[in-house]
Amino acid sequence: MKATFLTDELVQAVTNVQRAVSSKSTIPALKGILIKTGDNCAVLCGYDLSLGIRTQISAEIVEEGEIVLSAKLFGEIVKNMPEEHITIETDNKLITYIHSGVADYQIMGISSYEYPEFPTFDEIESFSMKGELLKNMIKQTNYAISEDITRPAYTGSLFDLKGGVLTIVSIDGCRMAIRKEKIEEDINFSFIVPGKTLLEVLKINCSEENIIRVVVGKKHVLFKIDEYSIISRLIEGQFLNYNSAVPSGALTRFRVNTRIISAAVERMALLTDDKLQSPVRFIVADEGIKLICATSVGKANDSIEVEFEGNDVEIGFNNKYLLDAIKNAETDELLFELNGTDKPLKILPTEGDSFLCLILPMKLS
């Protein structure tokens, strides 16, 4: 194999695909990036048997071929090359020569025969969305994905398609985030995508007009983003009936400016950390909202003027959970709904139902 690449294009491709490379595998080839050349282009792949990322970039091909190179070493080499072009050449002993200007490397490669094939699967359903919109939906829900591997279904997000609407749902036991948008396809289907896979989708750059195509099989899902393909195993298991978990009505309701409530909660959070967990108290009464946080470090008070409907209430929440929901709402104003001190807080847009976050309260001493 012998091919010449634009350095910037190669660096970007290597940076993206190496995130799917296994760092702990006992199979040496899985710690590498597969490079295949042909037809004036090169295909680069990273794969850890659960998640795979593949892309195609242009190249000047002198001799077609394929090789597997250590992702860590190869990535560092290409990032530090001095010129705008990089030439990669391999011989029949798998020695790989990497040139750029006066810089020259020789490293050992691995035969591509040792690299596992990307999974193929029969399509069951598929749909397409504008890339930025789908990434926005993922971003507004992935903060609530669980890290508890004993409940595998919740270590990913549910994609629920019904009646021309896509709903993405994430749950971690203390909160639930729901985001919905209309799609062109009228299909009824649901599947669970691992959180790690969704983070990789977020990291692939795409413009506002770019389309992401999602293809679903029995056990796999494929996200097609421009020249990138992200393929992943689906999570098997039963997901919560999220509609039944949302309380109806509200005993207390108020609107609040997103920036103001975010700043106030952040001020309360200055007294807390992972070892000093203490609820941020919300006292909703005639004068508005009073916020209180007390830990062994000290005590903080703040207040926000709001007009509310319903009952007075005193309730406490984890400050991180509140901030995650508020900062990912991406609206100027939010609607807070409460149903007493032992029911979850609902955070909603002031108009429509495009998103919803539920947060369980903390016990107050």
Concise description?
The protein has helices at residues 7-17, 71-79, 131-139, 195-203, 242-245, 258-269, 319-327, and strands at 2-6, 32-38, 41-47, 51-58, 60-63, 65-70, 85-90, 95-100, 103-108, 125-130, 156-162, 165-171, 175-182, 189-194, 211-216, 220-225, 228-233, 252-257, 280-285, 288-294, 299-304, 308-310, 313-317, 333-338, 345-349, 355-359. With 365 residues, the chain is α+β, with helices and mostly antiparallel strands.
Specify the CATH homologous superfamily of the largest domain: DNA Polymerase III, subunit A, domain 2
The gross shape turns out to be elongated
Radius of gyration in whole Å, from Cα?
25 Å
Query: What percentage of amino acids are in beta strands?
Result: 35-45%
Give me the CATH fold name of the largest domain. Answer: DNA Polymerase III, Chain A, domain 2
Query: How would you characterize the largest beta sheet?
Result: 9 strands, antiparallel
pLDDT < 50 stretches: none
Distance between the termini: 69 Å
Number of helices: 7
CATH architecture of the largest domain: Roll
Tell how many strands the DSSP assignment holds: 26
Category by helix and strand content: alpha+beta
Mean pLDDT across residues: 94
Total count of domains? 3
The side-by-side strand order for the widest beta sheet comes to: 14-11-12-13-26-25-24-18-22
Question: Can you tell me the CATH class of the largest domain?
Answer: Alpha Beta
Indicate the percent of residues in helices.
10-25%
